[in-house]
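User: tokens in, sequence out, please.
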């Protein structure tokens, strides 16, 4: 009997193997080609992958709900034994059920009056978007448990609410222009919601504000109706329902917060909305052991290995390690850093996957609350993998506290030099930029308000704000966080742009060294933003300005980075170059599939002071040479550097314009011919319409600005004096030909202000200099080729109107 059973089992296994050949056999009988067979298999694989992902999500949600209900029942049994019944504030079922209809009325009003107009303004194809039905259903949100924590200080109370929502919500939308109807019919939301009661007051209502957020990404499942129709609309075709749900889930998680002020004029609102982080955790991903083999060949008869990689997730912060091919005991030795906002509660999740051509298989996962790292300060151990996985994961975690002074910065920098870290060097500080608002932004088209958005960049890391539609005085109230490796020599660049045209409304560049000299490493004030000028530099020192002109010509013998089929087939690269110099970053266009790209692009940057801070001094005025590329084994870059100094001689202008026409590249901005330096001293007899002037009608600014001028014989200097609220106090228009006709190309004195009332005038000096070549020193910035598919970012055009923007910034060095 045993032999017979074994024989039947072997025959069954052989039959299952033969089933894999049936599609090919059927295709041959029907006369179909190999393409039809491959298409059918691809469609089947995609359907199976989507079905498995949805089933996995539903199983996780159901398991989480069962665990939460079991925990609440256990807690209820304990409380019942002690007090006889579960307190109403723990479950809250009857209260939420009674309030749910009123919450539905609030949501309907919010969606129709606030959300719908924003959606219509965000896309020209959605101008007929409307909510046709908003019904939150009869099933309310449930609170499965509440846990209280001590706050970071005495004026703070922390509450964690374990919530579960399996609702019969129905929301219908319509886009009449495309005859499109879609909506939501039922959804599930499960997760831990943290509510912070802060600040505590000595008067009613006792609590000044509520702050709400999910510590970890909640489990969200939405039953869409008509989603296919909605995604057919132009501008939405690149999205998917999975992308939409990921965006919604991320919006609910730290560092995003919902602030509900309970008292008017709350002074701490900005700090509560974007508080400083609690610390930084440096994670050293060392390796793993005894992982499960997921690769099978010949229908599972031959067992292979796995190609593991790790995904580390802390809230919305996600990093992915490199893939180790064919290894069940991989070693990564990679270092990552995560900003921590809430402890206890915020945790890190690490998932290990096997890289496959179709769908990556889960090898296991582990979770760790950062409260344990805070207690231990340094945690170095092997963690067992959960969720059906086997094996262990080796991590070293280090808690880094934040300091508000620079006394230990040198010590931190010295220590970081001893740390071998990849893919990025260890950070010495973090930078938090709080973006408040802007005022008086220019209108690129008469009568049409801009749609301002902000890009904040530090080196090659760029963060973007939300878009505020149809206003020249936008309010963002957003925060951006950056890791800094060398704060002494780094800058933060801020650009205000008009979305979706992406035309510049203003820019500001701030050397971070200024923050190191500021009290508590903080700058909190209004800043000027000008498309044409760098950070305002006073001209009173009378030191000549320099302009560095960088000709990015070509590169050769670059390394091919595009590989296919795990490196079996070697492709090429799509190179572009980044040029970092004097706090600015330029990026060339992408040259597709070329290891010897030719760019022929020109960039110009202002250098302040009496010399360009470059390392190697050459006797020639122009440097034209091939530079070897660092950190790679092959390749070199051809650049031409030219240092230009302003000369107060109009006789040179025609020669410079002619030379520029010969050097002008086919792509890029027109070359600059002159430098305009404007020093604004003071004004007199202005109309007294503001209380913010130190001396009514006689303000003193003592500030300087510099502009690159392309055609000085036709351009003009436009100056406007306004009060802080935007009301004009006077204007001055100074044609640059007047400077060309003046002795020394300069005008210095009092100038009348048009529209400012009798006697209104301004004291300034305007100096024009024709740009001619002088000696160059190589090495001020770095020219680094990079691979990828990025859009070019040319230098901003000079001479446009300036606006004002409010920027609050804070720098904190990290130390253990």
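Assistant: Sequence out:
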């Amino acid at each position: 009997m045993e032999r017979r059973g074994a024989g039947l089992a072997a025959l069954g296994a052989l039959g299952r193997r033969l089933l894999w050949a049936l599609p090919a056999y059927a295709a041959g009988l029907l006369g179909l080609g190999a393409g039809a067979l491959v298409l059918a298999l691809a469609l089947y694989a995609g359907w199976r992958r989507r079905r498995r992902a949805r089933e996995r999500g539903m199983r996780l949600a159901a398991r989480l709900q069962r665990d939460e209900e079991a925990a609440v029942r256990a807690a209820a049994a304990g409380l019942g034994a002690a007090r006889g019944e579960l307190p109403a504030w723990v479950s809250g079922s009857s209260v939420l059920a009674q309030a749910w209809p009123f919450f539905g009325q609030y949501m309907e009003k919010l969606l129709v009056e606030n959300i719908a107009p924003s959606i219509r303004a965000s896309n020209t194809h959605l101008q007929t978007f409307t909510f046709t039905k908003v019904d939150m259903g009869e099933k309310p949100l449930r609170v499965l448990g509440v846990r209280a924590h001590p706050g970071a200080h005495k004026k703070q109370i922390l509450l964690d609410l374990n919530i579960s929502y399996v609702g019969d919500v129905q929301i219908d939308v319509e886009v009449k222009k495309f005859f499109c109807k879609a909506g939501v019919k039922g959804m599930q939301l499960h997760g831990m919601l943290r509510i912070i009661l802060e600040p505590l007051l000595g008067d009613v209502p006792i609590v000044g504000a509520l702050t709400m957020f999910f510590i970890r990404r909640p489990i969200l499942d939405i039953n869409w109706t008509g989603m296919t129709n909605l995604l057919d609309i132009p501008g939405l075709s690149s999205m998917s329902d999975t992308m939409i749900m990921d965006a919604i889930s991320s919006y609910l998680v730290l560092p995003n917060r919902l602030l509900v002020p309970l008292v008017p004029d709350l002074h701490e609102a900005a700090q509560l909305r974007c508080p400083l982080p609690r610390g930084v955790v440096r994670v050293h991903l060392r390796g793993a052991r005894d992982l499960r083999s997921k690769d099978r060949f010949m229908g599972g008869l031959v067992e292979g290995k796995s190609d593991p990689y790790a995904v580390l997730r802390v809230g919305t912060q996600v990093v992915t390690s490199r893939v180790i091919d064919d290894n069940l005991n991989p070693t990564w030795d990679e270092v990552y850093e995560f900003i921590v906002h809430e402890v206890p509660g915020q945790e890190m999740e690490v998932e290990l996957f096997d890289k496959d051509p179709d769908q990556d298989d889960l090898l296991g996962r582990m979770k760790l609350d950062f409260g344990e790292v805070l207690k231990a300060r340094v945690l170095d151990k092997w963690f067992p993998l959960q969720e059906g996985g086997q094996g262990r994961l080796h991590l070293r975690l280090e808690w880094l506290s934040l300091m508000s002074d620079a006394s230990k910065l040198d010590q931190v920098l010295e220590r970081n030099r001893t740390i071998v870290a990849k893919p990025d060097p260890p950070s010495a500080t973090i930078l938090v930029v709080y973006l408040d608002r802007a005022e008086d932004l220019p209108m690129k088209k008469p009568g049409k308000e801009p749609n301002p958005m902000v890009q904040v960049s530090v080196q090659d890391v760029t963060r973007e704000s939300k878009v505020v539609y149809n206003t020249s005085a936008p309010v963002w109230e957003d925060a951006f966080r950056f890791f800094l490796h060398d704060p002494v020599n780094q800058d933060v660049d801020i650009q205000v742009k008009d979305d979706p045209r992406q035309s510049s409304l203003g820019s500001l560049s701030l050397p971070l060294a200024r923050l190191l000299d500021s009290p508590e490493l903080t700058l909190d004030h209004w800043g000027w933003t000008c498309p044409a000028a760098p950070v305002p530099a006073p001209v009173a020192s009378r030191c000549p300005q320099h302009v560095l002109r960088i000709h990015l010509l070509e590169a050769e013998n670059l390394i091919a980075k595009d590989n296919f089929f795990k490196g079996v087939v070697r492709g090429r690269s799509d190179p572009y170059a980044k040029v970092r110099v004097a706090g600015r970053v330029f990026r060339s266009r992408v040259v597709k599939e070329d290891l010897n790209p030719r760019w022929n692009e020109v960039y110009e940057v202002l250098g302040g002071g009496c010399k360009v801070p470059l390392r190697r001094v050459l006797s020639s005025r122009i440097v034209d040479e091939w530079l070897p590329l660092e950190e790679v084994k092959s390749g070199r870059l051809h650049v031409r550097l030219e240092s230009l100094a302003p000369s107060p001689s109009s006789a040179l202008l025609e020669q410079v314009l002619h030379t520029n026409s010969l050097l002008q590249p086919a792509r890029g901005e027109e070359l600059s011919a002159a430098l305009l330096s404007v020093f604004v001293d003071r004004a007199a007899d202005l109309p007294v319409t503001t209380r913010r002037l130190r001396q009514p009608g006689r303000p003193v600014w003592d500030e300087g600005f510099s502009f690159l001028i392309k055609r000085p014989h036709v351009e003009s200097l436009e100056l406007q004096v306004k009060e802080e609220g935007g009301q004009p106090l006077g204007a001055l228009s100074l044609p640059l030909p007047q400077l060309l006709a003046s002795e020394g190309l300069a005008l210095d004195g009092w100038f009348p202000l048009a529209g400012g009332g009798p006697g209104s005038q301004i004291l300034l000096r305007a100096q024009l200099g024709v740009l001619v070549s002088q000696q160059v020193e190589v090495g001020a910035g770095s020219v680094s080729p990079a691979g990828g598919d990025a859009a070019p970012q040319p230098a901003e055009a000079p001479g446009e109107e300036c606006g004002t923007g409010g920027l609050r910034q804070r720098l904190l060095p990290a130390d253990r």
